[in-house]
Amino acid sequence: MCFKNLPIEFDEQGKAQLREGVADPYAVAVAQPREYVRRGEGPGAMLAPPQLRDWNIDPVTRVAGALAVHTVLDLTARKAVEAHSQAMLFRGYEIILQGRDPRDAIDISSRACGVCGGVHATVSSLAIEQAFGICPPPLGVLVRNLGEVGEMFYDHPLHLGLLAGPDYSTSIVQVTNPELVTRAEHSPAPHSDVHGYRTIKDIMDAFNPLTGRIYLESLEYTRVGRIMCMQMYGKYPHPSTLVPGGVSTTISTSSFNEYYTQLAKIFDYCKVMAATWDDIVEFFYEANPEYEQVGARPINLAQTGIWDDPEAYDATYANCNEWGERRWALPGVIIDGELVTTRLTDINMGFEEFVEHSYYDDWTDGDARFATDPSGNPISPNHPWNKTTIPRPTGKNFKEKYSWDTAPRWDRQVVESGTYGRMWTTALAQKTPPNPFLESTGDGLRIVMPRHELPETELFWKVPRTLNALERNRGRAYAMAFTAAIGMNNLLKAFEYWRAGETKVHTKFKVPMDERVSAGFWEAGRGWLVHHLHVDKGRIVNYQITTPSTINASPRDPFGQPGPYEQAIVDTPILESVSDDDVKGIDILRTIRSFDPCMPCTTHMDTGKGVIVREVNSCGCTLE
Amino acid sequence: MTTPVTLVGGIGLPWLRDLDFGTQWIRRVEGLKWPADVVLEDLSYAGHRVLHRLQELRPARVVLVSSFPRDIDPPGTVRRYLLDLTPPDDAEVHERLTEAVGGVIDLDHTLAIVRYWNGFPPDTVVIEVEPGDQAFGLGFSDEVEAAVDTVLELVWREVSTTAVGPVP
Fold first, then answer.
1. Number of alpha carbons in the 13 Å side-chain half-sphere of residue A116
2. Distance in Å, alpha carbon of B9 to nearest chain A alpha carbon
């Protein structure tokens, strides 16, 4: 029984149903917004602490796309007391896709993101092949898996070296906490034998933008990741070879050999990144244990999983729990640190999107299109299959509406999604099959990185006790090795099929003319990625995209619960050792950037006149 | 030892009418008969990836074709300039690189990032068209459509010593 808010229960056969006697099972009781006030009192007002300062970041730099964050800092208590996260663009891919041939969705939704184009194309292919009732041959599944591994080796170095890493660089820490730089100079780096940096200060120097070694190496490794993608997809960005039923790439022995050459280059970088971030994280904790509270929020995570087992995946919704639980990175929901489900149907049926504080009209007047999913499990009127995107940018203030992002919730609880999240579900579930590179231990992941220039190395990512900014980044660093291990397993499997002569990578299909609904469940580098599809008469009736940043950047929901960024910012301590007037808000920025926001996917473009400005031609993973 | 090549690269934004000029222009002309040392490529991807491509190819000359709204000329105006290779300052490059890795693709980001890391040869020419219609959709506005042949003539002049243009 994984639901505690939605009235969903399971019978003895495990079939979900709405609890009897509940008149309006998906009723939404809207909470009065609670905010601090400077003078007097208003509805829902809380007592304002004495020394408040508005601290607004618009746009937040070093994130993909347009994100603004408005916070209130209490400079007496030295902490953030309020936060509003704003997705600043409307894009509207869902509207663009209405009425089109479903096959167009692969190419068009790929443009939802400038970082994860291949990921969107993949999940779109998954949704379409489920609707069409086809399944790729095993090698087609493996080629897709290997391409996804390559995608991650763009995302992860980017985050670690270019986006979040500079927050821990000498050039920034010198301004906000000069005493830490002095301390770092005299702190030997425990893993210097692995990464080669003698002191913590050397690591912080290496994080310096444009000149630091980690910054420059990370930029170079993104190239390796893209080459790996090209070996499997033929081109990047926006590969046109991802199709329903597999891939249309011409694959040869050399495709796999060259892929392996690139993957092997990454083994040492995985070891170095894990060691480097271990040293940085532990240094900050030791310097000031309050860093554990920077960006901390409840351990509530939702993941949809990636990397299918070709022997389990049949592309059907009916069997999605079986093939989902065979994925290398497991789908799952974690509430208060406990894994409550790994079943994709539970994850899907508990999912709702709300627009109480978003620039959209509520679409739930009248009957919902679907009361259940294709397997008969109940779904909400607020489920993406029932959603209609109705942009309405009115009531622009924090009490009414303030974001182009929606508020996705699972079982009406605030969940976040991330790279670390899929490692978390995989670690807790202990369902990883025996293999030479990856073991799920229940409290972490044991990862073996093969020898390259550095010797074979066993890494252990321990499930953190706190979900905070530093642990998100540390998790991302270990995700390098996690991903490489999965890449090795898939590559070895691909060689087996290749040797056995099972070289087909694609299944033929016809576009069905009857009504179908389906869902592509997959993950981007940053986590959760689902495309919900409804087709009829060979055309798209409804297409809905939910991304990790849709979830993470969300505004408050109707129940008054802040979104994950907002939750993580509130109560984050201001640990800068400078005067109030010189506070830069670095700990707030570390909090936000630890999620790796991707705003182009959050808001999906359309304007009435079709005029699009420069900023939206990019990765925009949070918007509609 | 490989022969040095001249790279003619287009930079465009798919489905945004005139803003997609660079990509669509390359598609239209790539089937013509070009000199053997000329390589035509769509460079409509992030600036740092273009840098990586130039580091691989090491061309002797580069001709970039794109449309870019400068709002200084009427739509359809063609501008040609020899690129000043002075690198931009660190702050600008850091900002543009951060946007580029997140997916922003445009001519100015590419010029800034590639110049900073000395990715262009000294002989780098930019031929850009002032766009008119930047709406979602396919095809060019009439003004920009009329510039297609002008750009072809200019590029041909850059890459060939013969007076006769490329033939189908």
1. 35
2. 16
Measured CA to CA, the distance from residue A107 to residue A128 in angstroms comes to: 12
Q: How many CB pairs (< 8 A) connect A and B?
A: 76
3-state secondary structure of A470: helix
Q: By CA distance, what is A235's nearest residue in B?
A: B45
Closest-CA residue to B115 (of B133, B88, B148, B155): B88
Cα separation, A312 vs A305, in Å, equals: 14
pLDDT of res. A608:
33
Question: Nearest residue on chain B to A210, judged by CA atoms?
Answer: B94
CB contacts of B46 in chain A (<8 Å) are 114, 237
Given an 8 Å threshold on Cβ–Cβ distance, is A114 in contact with B105?
Answer: yes
Residue pair A111/A616 in contact by the 8 Å Cβ criterion:
no
Q: Which DSSP state fits B4?
A: P
**Span A439-495, pLDDT tens digits:** 999 999 999 999 999 999 999 999 999 999 999 999 999 999 999 999 999 999 999
Backbone φ and ψ for A329, nearest 5 degrees, come out as -105, 115
Distance from CA of A277 to the nearest CA of B (A): 21
Q: Is the peptide bond before A237 cis (omega within 30 degrees of 0)?
A: yes
The reply to whether A114 touches chain B by the CB within 8 Å rule is: yes
Q: What is the pLDDT of residues A532-586, one digit of tens each?
A: 999 999 999 999 999 999 999 999 999 999 999 999 999 999 999 999 889 999 9
Pairing of strands B6-11, B38-42: parallel
A13: number of Cβ within 10 Å: 5
Asked if A359 and A389 touch (Cβ cutoff 8 Å), the reply is no
Å from B4 to nearest chain A CA? Answer: 23
Phi (first) and psi of residue B163, to 5 degrees: -80, -25
Residue with tokens 């003004």: B143
Output the pTM of the full model.
Answer: 0.90
Angle, vertex CA A364, rays to CA A103 and CA A398, nearest 5 = 100
Q: How far is CA A603 from CA A111, A328, B105, in A?
A: 12, 29, 18
CB nearest B98 (choices: A61, A237, A611): A61
